[in-house]
Amino acid sequence: MKRLFPDPMAEIDPDAAYAADRPSAEPRPWLLLNMVSSVDGAAVVDGRSGGLGGPADKAVFSALRALADVILVAAGTARAEDYGPPRLSDTARQRRRMRGQAEVPRMALVTRSMDLDLDSSLFTEAERPPLVLTAESAPPDRLSAAAEVADVLVLGEESVDLERALVEMGRAGAGVVLAEGGPSLNGQLIASDSIDELCLTVSPLMIGGDSLRIARGDDAGSLPFELAHVLTEDGLLFLRYLRRR
Predict the structure, then answer these.
(1) Kind of pairing, strands 106-110 and 236-243?
(2) Is the pTM here over 0.90, yes or no?
(3) Residue 47 pLDDT more than 90?
(4) What is the spatial distance between Cα 73 and Cα 146, in angstroms, rounded to a whole number?
(5) Is it the case that residue 220 has pLDDT exceeding 70?
(6) Tell me, what's the pLDDT at 25?
(7) What does DSSP say about strands 70-74 and 176-179: parallel, antiparallel, or unpaired?
(8) How far apart are CA 234 and CA 43, in angstroms?
């Protein structure tokens, strides 16, 4: 992988490129959003993001997951992308131990309906019980079933209060939360001004059609960011932005 900005380098390791110290965002954790998009703004191909990336994108994906204490994702995205539990290399686990982190990050699923496959590997093979973030309007029977295999947090009446959720994660010791979408969740994070860092992979594809963007929602936001680095490999661009506050 090559770095184009700020200081060009012919070769840089993704783990090193993203390993910068992140300042405290108290009273909540630092929130890093990682997404992929085509050059014309499409966030998915045939309903999934996987068709936009490649080996280099997977390397960045793994590097960012290795930094996180919690991976935050909408339940619908977890279903569409066939999520399993986080799996890290021995090297990544050792680095985490040296930083005082748990060996693997914890999954946190956002859902109002509690439409979860509790028999999936995301729950049955998890090294750490996932967090399920939901609202008071969720079906009680599904809440009870989820509580058998996950830690359930009820945050809000009709919708999940993400600001409260982040504060609760911080109280539990999380320093970095990695958000992985989908677009509706990202839109809520924009509306609450919760995003501290955006890592965006730009794929050299044009998709057309009516594909979703990386964020959507009723509450429009206009958050200024500063470009921190640009990497490239196999025609993809890897952009890292930091929130300008």
Answers:
(1) unpaired
(2) yes
(3) no
(4) 16
(5) no
(6) 77
(7) parallel
(8) 19
